[in-house]
Design a protein that fits this description.
Helix content is 48%, strand content 11%. The protein contains 19 helices and 14 strands. The strands form four sheets. It has a five-stranded parallel β-sheet with strand order 2-1-3-4-5, with helices on both faces. Helix 18 (448-455) packs across helix 19. The termini are far apart.
Length: 486
C-alpha cells in the first residue's frame, strides 16, 4: 500500500470549532480504525461548501459552533445529502438534545467523553451501512440496465451466460468496498479468474498476492500470512514480512479456504474482525490494509453446520458472496470456449488452428464436465496436440468422456437426471426404448451419431431401431387416414 492510498475511498468529514479536538479525533480514527482519508473543518459553513463540491462517506459533527449551529448543519445534510450518515459528537450530555438529533436524522449521538472503542465501533458501523446502501443502489441500476460496465476486467472469462453476467454485475457493484469476498464453485469453474477480475476493477495498481492455504499447518499459516520478527524462532535470523504486508493496499487471495485448519480459522477471524495482526515474535499489532478475497469448492454452509468450519468466520467471509455456476449449467458457453481454447492451443503449440466438426459442440453439450472449464481446456489441448488433418477428430473427446465405441455411458446425472423417474403405470420395454431415443435425439438436435453415443449403441443399431419404429407406425398411420376419409 503506497503512502497515498486512502481508506475509506470517500472522505470522513470532521466538523468542530476546536482545532485541538479535531487533531485528536483524527489520530484516534487513524490509529484505531485505519481511517486515513479525513477532512477537518473548523467552521460549519466550510463543511457545507465541501459537501456541495465532493461526495463524502461520513460526517462527525459537533453541536455547539459559532455562526451556524450543529443542528442546522444536521438538518441541511440530511435533507440535501441523505446518503451521508451523520454522527453527532458533542460535549452536551443531554437526553433532549440527543432525541432532537435522532429525530432530525442523525445516525447516532455520542458524547466526547465516550470510550474510544465505542466511538470507533459506531464509526465503522456507519461506514459499513453507507457502503451497503451505495452497493445496493449500484446493483439495482446495473441489474435493471442489464449491463457490465467494465467487461475488460473479465476478459479472461469467456462467456455469454446470463448467470455469469450477473456475477460480473455484482462484482462491479461491490468493487469499491473493503469488505471480504467469498467466491464459491466447483473445481475448474474459474474462481481465481473471477477474483482477478475483481482485482482489476478495484485495485489494479496495487499488489495481487495469492496463496493456497489447503494443507498449511497453523505455524506455517501464521508465518506465511503474518511474517515474523528476527529471533522469533530457531533459524529466524532476520525479519520477514508476511503476505498480508506484501498485499498492503491490494488484494490478498486465499484459495481453498474451506480446508483451513481450526486454529488458523481463529487467526483469520481475528484478522478480519479486528483489522490487525501480530507478526510472530512481535507484541506490536499491525493494521490490515489489504482486501481479503477467498475461494473454495466446498459447501461452507454445510461445513459450518457440521462443525468443520467456524460459523462466525463463515458469516464474516460471506459479507459479499458470488457462486460460479458449473459448465453443465451454461452449455451455451461451450461453443465459445471451444473456439477460444482451439485458438489458444494452436498458438501455444505453434500449430495451425484445426476446424472443429459441427457435431462436436452437440457432443460436448451433453456431457457432465465434472472438471468444468479446466477439463474442457485439457481436452482441447490434448486433441490439438495430436491432430494431423485440418478437421479435428472427435475420437479424442469421446475417449476423454468415456463414450468411445459406446464403452461407457456419460455420468447418470449429466443433465441433472440422476435416476430415472417412472409413472404409476410402467411403460412397456418398447415404449421406454422409444422414449429414450426421442430424448437423445431432442438433446442432440436430431444428430443421430451423437444420439447413438449418448445411448451407448452404434449408429447402425440406432438406425435399425428408428427404421423398425417407422415400419411399425406405418399401418397405424394408414388406418388413421382411412378413419379420416370415413
Amino acid at each position: 500500500m503506497t503512502a497515498d492510498t486512502l481508506f475509506p475511498a470517500l472522505p470522513v468529514v470532521l466538523v468542530d470549532d476546536e482545532r485541538a479536538w479535531l487533531r485528536s479525533l483524527r489520530l484516534v480514527l487513524e490509529r484505531s480504525a485505519g481511517i486515513n482519508n479525513v477532512i477537518c473543518c473548523s467552521e460549519a459553513r466550510e463543511a457545507l461548501q465541501l459537501l456541495a463540491g465532493r461526495p463524502a462517506a461520513l460526517m462527525l459533527l459537533d453541536l455547539v459552533m459559532p455562526a451556524i449551529s450543529g443542528e442546522q448543519v444536521l438538518e441541511e445534510v440530511v435533507r440535501d445529502y441523505p446518503h451521508i450518515p451523520v454522527i453527532v459528537l458533542t460535549g452536551m450530555n443531554q437526553v433532549e438534545a440527543a432525541v432532537r438529533c435522532i429525530k432530525l436524522g442523525a445516525f447516532d449521538y455520542l458524547v466526547k467523553t465516550a470510550e474510544e472503542e465505542r466511538l470507533v465501533t459506531v464509526v465503522r458501523h456507519a461506514l459499513r451501512m453507507a457502503e451497503l446502501q451505495r452497493e445496493n443502489t449500484d446493483m439495482r441500476r446495473r441489474f435493471l440496465q442489464d449491463e457490465v460496465a467494465h467487461p475488460e476486467a473479465f476478459a479472461d472469462l469467456v462467456t455469454a451466460d446470463k448467470k455469469m453476467r450477473s456475477v460480473f454485475q455484482y462484482l462491479e457493484a461491490v468493487a469499491p468496498s473493503s469488505q471480504p469476498v467469498l467466491i464459491t464453485g466447483e473445481s475448474g469453474t474459474g474462481k481465481e479468474l473471477v477474483a482477478r477480475g475483481l482485482y482489476r476493477l478495484s485495485r489494479p495498481q496495487q499488489p495481487w498476492v495469492a496463496v493456497n492455504v489447503a494443507g498449511l499447518d497453523d505455524n506455517v499459516f501464521s508465518d506465511t500470512l503474518f511474517g515474523h520478527e528476527r529471533g522469533a524462532f530457531t533459524g529466524a535470523d532476520r525479519a520477514r514480512a508476511g503476505l498480508v504486508e506484501e498485499a498492503r493496499g491490494g488484494i490478498l487471495f486465499l484459495d481453498e479456504i474451506g480446508d483451513l485448519s481450526s486454529p488458523s480459522q481463529v487467526k483469520l477471524l481475528r484478522l478480519l474482525q479486528e483489522g490487525e495482526y501480530f507478526p510472530l515474535g512481535s507484541d506490536r499489532p499491525r493494521r490490515l490494509k489489504a482486501r481479503v478475497v477467498v475461494s473454495t469448492n466446498r459447501d461452507l454452509e454445510r461445513a459450518q453446520a457440521e462443525g468443520g468450519f467456524r460459523r462466525d468466520l463463515y458469516y464474516r467471509l460471506r459479507t459479499h458472496h458470488v457462486h460460479i455456476p458449473p459448465l453443465r449449467e451454461r452449455p451455451g458457453d461451450i461453443p465459445l470456449l471451444l473456439e477460444h481454447f482451439l485458438s489458444e492451443a494452436a498458438r501455444e503449440l505453434d500449430k495451425r488452428k484445426p476446424t472443429a466438426p459441427p457435431e462436436l459442440s452437440v457432443l460436448l453439450a451433453n456431457y457432465d464436465f465434472p472438471g468444468n472449464v479446466r477439463q474442457l481446456r485439457a481436452m482441447v489441448y490434448d486433441a490439438v496436440s495430436i491432430h494431423q488433418a485440418r478437421k479435428l477428430s472427435m475420437d479424442v473427446f469421446r475417449r476423454a468422456m468415456g463414450t468411445l465405441n459406446g464403452s461407457e455411458q456419460p455420468p447418470a446425472d449429466a443433465k441433472g437426471g440422476g435416476q430415472l423417474g417412472f409413472p404409476e403405470i410402467l411403460p412397456t420395454l418398447n415404449q421406454a426404448i422409444s422414449q429414450l431415443i426421442d430424448e437423445a435425439l431432442a438433446r442432440t438436435g436430431g444428430n443421430q451419431t451423437i444420439a447413438a453415443d449418448l445411448l451407448g449403441i452404434s449408429r447402425p443399431a440406432l438406425n435399425k431401431r428408428l427404421s423398425r419404429r417407422r415400419t411399425n407406425d406405418e399401418p397405424l398411420q394408414q388406418s388413421r387416414k382411412g378413419c379420416d376419409k370415413g
